[in-house]
Design a protein that fits this description.
Distance between the termini: 31 Å
Number of helices: 4
Number of domains: 1
Length: about 70
């Protein structure tokens, strides 16, 4: 299932486990649109919910650095 497209974004993604905190920080920093663009650029075919959750959970340092979020 592709989840990042015109209808689904980080704002309405239901993250779980360790990904919840990363999602919260991105949204609070006002970077959700930048994150969506980054994922769309890196994964033009889309990502599954599990893949997106894993990116948020296990790659948070890379995500924050890519979005210029100091955490």
């Amino acid at each position: 299932m592709i989840i990042i497209n015109n209808n689904e974004t980080l704002l309405n993604f239901k993250a779980w486990s360790g990904a919840v905190e990363t999602q919260r920080v991105i949204i609070e920093e006002g970077k959700s649109s930048d994150f969506n663009f980054l994922i769309e650029e890196l994964y033009p075919e889309g990502v599954t919910t599990g893949e997106l959750n894993d990116i948020l959970r296990f790659e948070s340092d890379w995500v924050f650095e890519s979005l210029s979020i100091k955490n």
